[in-house]
Each structure stands twice: as C-alpha cells, then as structure tokens.
Amino acid sequence: MLSVPRLMVLREVLNRRSFSAAAEALSYSQSSVSQAVATLEAELGVTLVERDRRGVRATAAGSALMAHADGILARLEAAEDEVAAIAGLRAGRLRVAS
Question: For residues 34 and 20, is the Cβ–Cβ distance under 8 A?
Fold first, then answer.
C-alpha cells in the first residue's frame, strides 16, 4: 500500500520542482526527501521524477500517480476537517427531546 506521507513528499517535490525546496517547505532534510521519493519509486518499480540541471519533473508514471494522489490527499484533508468540526462541536447531530 502506498504511504500517504511519501505521497505528500512527492507532491511537494513535483509542485516545487526541487528536492531542496520541498525539504525546506516540509521542514525535512534534503536526504530524507530524496529517500522518500526513492522508496516510493522502489515500491512501485517505476521512475516517478526525472532529475536534471533545471530541477525535477514528473515522468508519465509520476504524473499518473499525482493525478490520483491529489484526489486522495484532498479527501484525507476533508475527512480531517469534518472530524475536527464534529470534535469542536461546529457540526454534527443534536437531538433534543422534551
């Protein structure tokens, strides 16, 4: 199963087109960002990013994964928001009987 934290790292790398910028945005070391992407690539058996002098860009497999990952991460954020709203009593059911 894919790791949500690694998907988040990949999203930052591809959005920022840099391992260094992604590491800074996530408050990670650059080596941990590189390792997360390498682990994800090893798990899937494909190259997800192409590295060159101008930065990084998604391969076809990386683009396909990010299309799904964006939806997955958005759903997870929505779920967290909904649970937080219920926990904070901003939403949920209220039953009143008399």
Answer: no
Whole-prediction pTM value? 0.80
- CA count, 13 A, side-chain hemisphere, 90: 6
The closest alpha carbon to 79, from 71, 65, 95, belongs to: 71
Q: Selecting from 1.10.12.10, 1.20.120.80, 1.10.287.1080, 1.10.10.10, what CATH number does the domain 4-87 have?
A: 1.10.10.10
The per-residue pLDDT for range 34-82, each reduced to its tens digit, is 999 999 999 999 999 999 888 899 999 999 999 999 999 999 999 998 8
Q: Which residues pair with 52 in a beta bridge?
A: 55
Instruction: Write the secondary structure of 62-74 as one string of H (helix), E (strand) and C (coil).
Output: HHHHHHHHHHHHH
Whole-angstrom Cα distance, residue 23 to residue 12?
8
94 pLDDT higher than 70 = no
